[in-house]
Amino acid sequence: MKKHNFSAGPAILPQSVMQEASEACIEFNGMGMSILEISHRSKQFDAVELEARQLVHEIGGFDDRFAVLFLSGGASTQFALAPMNLLKEGEKAAYVDTGVWASKAIKEAKLFGKAEVLASSKDSNYSFIPKSYDIPSDAAYLHLTSNNTIYGTQLHEFPKSPVPIVCDMSSDMYSRPFDVEQFGLVYAGAQKNLGAAGVTIVIVRKDLIGRSERQLPSMFDYKLHLENGSMYNTPPVFSLYVTMLTLRWLKEQGGLAAIQKHNESKAAILYNEIDANPLFKGTVAVEDRSLMNVCFLPTNADHEAPFMEMAKAAGIDGIKGHRSVGGFRASIYNAMPQSSVQVLVDVMREFAQKNG
Ligand SMILES: *Cc1c(COP(=O)(O)O)cnc(C)c1O
Q1: Which atom of ligand 1 is nearest to the CA of 76?
Q2: Is the pLDDT of residue 356 over 90?
Q3: What is the rounded distance in angstroms from the CA atom of residue 33 to the CA atom of residue 47?
Q4: Which residues contact 139 (CB under 8 A, 6 or more apart)?
Q5: pTM recorded for the entire structure
Q6: Which residues line ligand 1 (CB under 6 A)?
Q7: pLDDT single digits (tens) 170-212
Q8: Which of 101, 150, 202, when mutated, tests ligand 1's pocket best, judged by the most ligand atoms within 8 Å of its CB?
Q9: From 101, 221, 249, 266, the catalytic residue
Q10: Is 63 a catalytic residue?
Q11: What are the two backbone dihedrals, phi and then psi, of residue 353, each rounded to the nearest 5 degrees?
């Protein structure tokens, strides 16, 4: 039986993307060879990289003042590459601490300069997004995490910033429209919402590249990757191909405005049930609820295991909450169909009828 995959990441992908990707593993583009065995310098793969890059531009609606890079090492590598490339020796960068991923980004920044934490919701286990803080105008950049995958909080509005915003969008990039012009650097590991693990999508304002004036190892230098069209070394060929297919799919869905509608209606179905069902409760401030990762607890802790059993029997997979929050987390990324969300809601109702 095909499962309803609510995993936080690697996560659900469109069925059509997996179909096409699996066919390409046998033979790609009538070449008599698999996508896994062709040269990354081939004409055919060049076309994949170009289409992926153009789709990132087209779907995001931004021009050539921004570079699109496809790198490896995950979003976690960008925690370090952002300060390495943008933060000068002795300068400070501003960070907002909204969870484990933000804290890891702060830790890396401290290796390359000062990281000033403007606000943190750590004391309340990151159950809300801090919003009142002043952004120092002498900071090199402001670093934000747009969606906190573990806790299920999301920035629904970005602050007006006097300095460029650097944003980890790993778990909500291209789930809704956003104005790229507001940002200096955006990065996302593909495996949450945009493809298979292995490739990281980086959008960076070209005039910020090299800002740190640091001598960098080649692989850590955005400038070098830009000059080499993300092919200074062998890129994660298959992951990049899957991302290209996922972007094609996203465009076919109608792009960011359309996918936002889809995501809003899926999230509303689930949050409405959490609020209406006496056996469950949400874990975060209502105004900061994520449209991607929906975290909830049973009102009675003894209900955790039996609810999990019932969900499992309905083909639901991946809803165990992160250990730092507990309970349940339903990740409902772009590719998650509304019908699967409805299956989860139906199980919650049935559970309440039997146990309420
Ligand atoms: C998953 C995740 C990361 C880590 O991504 P990797 O690609 O595993 O390094 C970073 N930030 C956020 C918000 C995430 O959800």
Answers
A1: 9
A2: no
A3: 16
A4: 91, 92, 93, 94, 116, 163
A5: 0.98
A6: 9, 74-76, 101, 145, 149, 168, 170-171, 189, 192
A7: 999 999 999 999 999 999 999 999 999 999 999 999 999 999 9
A8: 101
A9: 101
A10: no
A11: -60, -40
Give the right CATH number for 254-355 from 3.40.109.10, 3.40.50.620, 3.90.1150.10, 3.30.420.40: 3.90.1150.10
Q: Say whether 101 is catalytic.
A: yes
- For the purposes of burial, counting CB atoms within 10 Å of the CB of 52, is it exposed (0-12), middle (13-18) or buried (19 or more)? buried
Give residue 68 CA to ligand 1 midpoint distance, Å.
Answer: 18
Domain segments of the chain as ranges:
15-252, 254-355
Residue 16 Cα, ligand 1 centroid: separation in angstroms? 25
Query: CA angle, 345 as apex, 251 and 307 as ends, to 5°?
Result: 125
Q: Is position 249 annotated as part of the catalytic site?
A: no
Q: What percent of the chain has pLDDT over 70?
A: 100
For residue range 53-90, what is the model confidence (pLDDT) as tens digits? 999 999 999 999 999 999 999 999 999 999 999 999 99
Under the banding of pLDDT at 50, 70 and 90, the label for residue 1 is confident
Q: Which two tokens stand for residue 56?
A: 């990132």
